[in-house]
Design a protein that fits this description.
Layout: H1 6-24, H2 29-57, E1 59-63, E2 71-72, E3 78-79, E4 84-88, H3 89-112, H4 120-139, H5 143-161, H6 168-199, H7 204-210, H8 215-232, H9 241-247, H10 250-275, H11 281-303, H12 309-333, H13 338-377, H14 388-391, H15 393-406, H16 413-428, H17 430-455, H18 469-487, H19 489-505, H20 507-515
Antiparallel strand pairs: 1-4, 2-3
């Protein structure tokens, strides 16, 4: 049955198409674009067919080249040494995000880059490889393969940040991203080496079942937290975000948001699944909480004075990452206290996980609206804008939806996830919740400034028209999903968020699904 191989096919379609794009390009632009879209739609289709299996079975283990994830040695000892994908509620949740963002970004790029005539085959090959890297990091059950997919994602992202290579700023941004990505990957590779040297294993479940939490394990944990938080854009390791997000083409900026979340997923997987309760959960939880609070406050205060609309939004990305770290950090900090965890720890994690997909949607939409403005005005400077609402009404509407959502204004989806975070974190520490609410107020003030500077005022003298249809379609897909999530937040939480939180918090199910299959 083809559906039995859904985990492999989700990656296989974009991977094979990425190498076929130079050939497809010879048959014309429309032919190439159709097959690129088809490959991503196939991935989405198999994600949707895989989801019910995950929700019914809890964890699905897919082994490449075998029906069993491990082998039995002559001594009788069994070990999962084959390449495996381990998909649970959290994995499939992140796969939804990767699928939505990739498809929307692709459609948007047809309009945004339609005037480009050189290097478009490379652009779409790399876009597909970004998608492959995200899926691979999300699905893999092997630490070394997670490093490999992280590198695939980083290399493709770096090249796409520098797409307009004739501009000095893009090369500088790509270089910063390359340096940070190399350091983060090196930290991860050293951590993988530490685990392999101690436990003679690379499989996450196998290591988790044997881990001692000794000094070497603590060093590996520190390396993983620092490296993955760096890739996620958390303060104080956020220095690459404003330049990379600001200089990349708009559809790639939206995909960089999802790429950062893949690293955030790897960080959460490390803390909950790899180490679990053997971790000093209170201390590590507070480290993640502090990273979250710093990211929230530094990000929003750096965003307010910005004149470059994309840099302003990039700093808000840093700030929004803080909300996700805060909620998950609180959940981790109280994991050893069953009453506190059930009372408000799970709710804090629900809010953060829900915020991941909300953030991908509204921040992606905001970056696409900024790209539409740049496409028409050829500037990102807010002082050189004004009156856009008269000329670009649909782009204005999409911006308003994204701005209200990121500020947490009810009934938009950003309010639903933030309210869960406020309420649960307040029971853990009221001061943390107050800081989070203050950051939301400052976020609203920042986007009021953007709306006033860019969209309000008399009609522009320039003959500026609405963005091309492909760009509007890409924005509309995201906007419609935001509205759906805003109208039915309880259904979204019950359907895809709760299974993700339960999967992340339940280390035992993950380990037994892999180790029990040997």
């Amino acid at each position: 049955m083809i559906f039995e191989h859904a985990p492999a096919l989700i990656i296989a379609f974009p991977l094979l198409t990425s190498f076929a794009v130079p050939i497809l390009n010879r048959f014309g632009e429309k032919f190439r674009n159709f097959f690129v879209l088809l490959s991503l739609l196939f991935s989405l289709f198999f994600v949707l067919t895989l989801a019910p299996q995950v929700y019914s079975h809890g964890v699905i283990v897919y082994t490449f080249g075998s029906t069993s994830p491990g082998i039995t040695l002559p001594s009788g000892y069994s070990m999962p040494i084959r390449i495996t994908f381990t998909i649970d509620g959290m994995s499939i949740f992140m796969a939804f995000i990767a699928s939505i963002v990739s498809i929307s970004g692709l459609i948007y790029s047809w309009g945004f880059l339609k005037k480009e005539r050189v290097g478009m085959d490379k652009f779409y090959s790399l876009l597909l490889l970004m998608s492959v890297g995200m899926y691979g990091m999300i699905f893999t059950g092997d630490l070394f393969n997670m490093f490999v997919f992280l590198e695939i994602l980083s290399i493709a992202s770096c090249a796409l940040i520098a797409f307009w290579v004739h501009k000095g700023e893009t090369s500088e941004a790509a270089f910063k991203y390359m340096v940070v990505s190399s350091i983060a990957a090196l930290f991860m590779l050293i951590a993988v080496g530490i685990f392999y040297g101690q436990y003679n294993a690379l499989n996450i479940a196998a290591i988790a079942s044997m881990i001692n939490y000794n000094l070497l394990d603590k060093i590996a944990l520190s390396l993983l937290i620092v490296g993955l938080a760096m890739k996620a854009g958390a303060v104080p390791m956020h220095m690459w975000v404003p330049d990379a997000y600001g200089q990349a083409p708009a559809p790639i900026t939206m995909m960089l948001v999802a790429a950062s979340q893949a690293s955030l997923y790897a960080l959460f997987r490390t803390c909950f699944t790899l180490f679990g309760l053997r971790l000093d959960v209170a201390m590590v939880g507070w480290i993640i909480i502090i990273l979250g609070i710093l990211s929230m406050f530094v990000g929003v205060t750096m965003a307010i004075p910005q004149k470059d609309i994309k840099k302003l939004m990039a700093y808000h990305s840093v700030s929004q990452t803080g909300y996700m770290l805060l909620g998950v950090g609180v959940g981790l900090a109280v994991m050893n206290d069953p009453i506190a965890f059930q009372t408000y720890g799970m709710k804090a994690m629900e809010g953060s996980i829900f915020h991941i997909i909300n953030y991908a949607l509204y921040k992606g939409l905001l970056f696409l609206t900024a790209g539409a403005i740049f496409y028409k005005l050829k500037t990102r400077n807010l002082d050189e804008m004004g009156g856009i609402a008269h000329n670009m009404p649909l782009t204005t509407l999409f911006f308003i939806i994204g701005a209200l959502a990121i500020a947490g204004i009810p009934p938009l989806n950003g309010f639903a996830s933030k309210f869960l975070i406020y309420e649960s974190v307040y029971r853990f520490n009221p001061l943390l919740s107050i800081i989070a609410m203050v950051v939301s107020v400052l976020t609203l003030a920042s986007f009021v400034k953007v709306f006033h500077s860019a969209f309000m005022g008399p009609k522009m003298k320039k003959n500026v028209r609405e963005a091309p249809r492909a760009m509007l379609l890409g924005m509309a897909i995201i906007a419609i999903l935001i509205i759906i999530f805003s109208l039915f937040p309880a259904m979204v939480v019950r359907t895809i968020v709760d299974p993700a939180v339960i999967a992340l918090a339940n280390q035992g199910n993950y380990i037994s699904a892999v180790m029990g299959g040997i």
